[in-house]
Amino acid sequence: MSHNIAVIPGDGIGNEVMPEGIRALEAAAHRFSLDLNFTEFDFASCDYHERHGKMMPDDWRDQLGGMDAIFFGAVGMPDRVPDHISLWGSLLQFRRAFDQYVNLRPCKLMPGIKSPLAGRAPGDIDFYVVRENTEGEYSSVGGKMFEGTDREVVIQDTVMTRTGIDRVLKFAFELAMTRPRKKLTSATKSNGISITMPYWDERVVEMARGYPDINVDKFHIDILTANFVLHPDWFDVVVASNLFGDILSDLGPACTGTIGVAPSANINPEGHFPSLFEPVHGSAPDIFGKGIANPIGQIWSAAMMLEHLGHMDAGKAVVEAIERVLAAGPGDAPLTPDLGGRGTTGELGEVIAEAIKNG
Ligand code: NAD
Ligand code: IPM
Ligand code: MN
User: Fold this and answer.
1) Which residues form the catalytic set?
2) Looking at ligand 1, which residue's alpha carbon is closest to its atom 16?
3) pLDDT (tens digit, 9 = 90+) per residue, 319-338?
4) How deeply is 241 buried, as exposed, middle or buried, from its count of CB atoms within 10 A (0-12, 13-18, 19+)?
5) What is the DSSP string of 139-182?
6) Is the CB of 25 under 6 A from ligand 1?
7) Using a 6 Å cutoff on CB, does residue 261 contact ligand 1?
């Protein structure tokens, strides 16, 4: 079976890590006899914005909607286009228009990587953040009033719907059912955010009724961030609203050494629309052009895409290749500087692709 994959490198290091993601996919396709057809798009980038005055062409939905998956790099060059314009004009549109309501972000301490948390070894940190991805704090409801006066007011409402919460909770509970520990933690803030968050908690209690085998707990987001650092071994599946999930999914990977390895899957579980696979990190303007960006977040996202497309064996082989190369350590593998090595993006991508081919 062939798969049509939209490739959108975007901005900054998105352009440097994307070729390594493709190289890994091509290696997996070769080994597992997969037929992957890539179509590259130059929109959803600040370059495109500079040429056209907008982030995407008007028919972007038609161009992408029929694809089997979208493989995405990163977007944003805040010195050239304000972030809220570039992001609301691209990535956040994809998530909404294609109803990618689950943002699945694994967080795992890999062999060979030193955690910044003292005494933590692989196995101590191995959980998923399941982030609500289409509503919540990321809403376009609100506005500015009395602009330019000293009575200026800005309002942005949080929007939570029963359907929106229940569907992401269901995904998280189902995921927890597949895990040996069967544990689910809900991120809340129902002590301070007094309408939406108590409602979130209510829906968690209601959903938990259908999953008596799952051990459910909850923490307010402030102490939850502390517990990520102090007790990362407590967590298995962590479900969170859009903003809380965003924060937790940078903190979690930072506890595993570097956000450069973290992948994500923006999923439309029903398969009505293409799902989108991208690293958690952004376009990293501070290191763009130096050739030192870690390509593993992009490559691991490729593995999640292969699994989503039904090729579990190929996805697993890509993750195993990453683990083997990391386990070799900075002395033997060309790891990038964020991993304590002196390798380049291309060198690390190449050894991982070789490891995928050789199995
Ligand atoms: P960032 O993730 O781009 O960078 C944060 C820090 O992590 C930087 O010091 C960077 O050098 C480092 N880093 C990130 N990825 C790395 C990698 N692969 N290897 C090594 N180091 C890496 O976050 P930021 O600086 O807040 O944002 C920069 C731009 O990216 C902004 O425009 C922001 O809006 C955008 N952004 C986009 C996405 C996305 O497309 N999904 C995600 C986050 C941020
Ligand atoms: C992410 C990013 C985006 C988000 C930004 C760039 C809008 O941080 O994918 O985590 O907040 O979702
Ligand atoms: Mn983020």
Assistant:
1) 138, 189, 222, 246, 250
2) 260
3) 999 999 999 988 899 999 99
4) buried
5) ---EEEESTTSTT-EEEE--B--HHHHHHHHHHHHHHHHTSTT-
6) no
7) no
How far, in whole angstroms, is CA 85 from its chain's centroid?
20
Taking the centre of ligand 2 as the mean of its atom positions, its distance from the CA of residue 187, in whole angstroms, is 18
* Domain boundaries along the sequence of the chain: 1-104+259-359, 126-255
Instruction: Judge if ipTM > 0.85.
Output: yes
Q: Determine the angle formed by the axes of helices 345-358 and 312-332, rounding to 10 degrees.
A: 130
Instruction: Return the structure tokens found at 188.
Output: 């809340």
Nearest atom within ligand 1 for CA of residue 14: 40
Q: What separation, in Å, do the N-terminal and C-terminal C-alpha atoms of the chain show?
A: 22
Whose CA is closest to atom 9 on ligand 2?
280
CATH H superfamily, domain 126-255? Isopropylmalate Dehydrogenase (3.40.718.10)
* pLDDT tens digits along 121-162: 999 999 999 999 999 999 999 999 999 999 999 999 999 999
Whether the domain at 1-104+259-359 and the domain at 126-255 fall into the same CATH topology:
yes
- Please state which CATH number belongs to domain 1-104+259-359: 3.40.718.10
Using most ligand atoms within 8 A of CB, pick from 138, 281, 294, 348 the residue to mutate for ligand 1.
281
Whole-number Å distance, alpha carbon 246 to ligand 2 midpoint, is: 7
Of ligand 1's listed atoms, the one at least distance from the Cα of 73 is 40
- What is the Cα–Cα distance from 287 to 292, expressed in whole angstroms? 7
Ligand nearest to the CA of residue 279, numbered in listed order: 1
Residues 6+ apart with CB under 8 A from 319: 300, 303
How far away, in angstroms, is 279 Cα from ligand 3 center?
Answer: 10
Mean pLDDT, to the nearest integer, of 98-110?
98
Residue nearest to atom 11 of ligand 2 (CA): 246
Please report which helix (H) or strand (E) contains residue 7, including its range: strand 2-10
The pLDDT of 202-226, averaged and rounded, is 98
